[in-house]
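Issue 218. Parser rejects a valid record. Input:
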Amino acid sequence: MNAATPYFDDVLATHVLIREWLGGEAAAPESCANLLARFSPDFTMISPGGKQLDAAGLTAFFGAAGGSRPGLQMHIADLVLIQESAAGATVSYRELQSMPGAENTQRLSTVVYEKTPGGALLWRHLHETWVAPGGV
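Output the parser choked on:
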């Protein structure tokens, strides 16, 4: 991992919110709203399986998925700052997920951040790719 950056802190904090929301630890509607506030209204995503999602799709997904993955654990590793500018940054990382009774999964992810004029960091684009069993 490169030296810590506000972007790394945000990746880690966002995944805590995702884990708490999906795992059911944070069930209040404002928990979902706080999570979704981290994403740009122009957000786009390519899931590990190749599905494309926009901000409305992400909102629908999280709205329906609260508490759907009890026991979910997430570990973020190998954070790399690929690029940084006044407008934002690009960060890659490895995400490991485990859940009771389910196979552990790993994905390689790249997030493109936009920085608002007020300095807030928003997720503008996310691309995730499955790590093959026994993969890197």
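Fixed in the parser; the record now loads. The chain has three helices and six strands.
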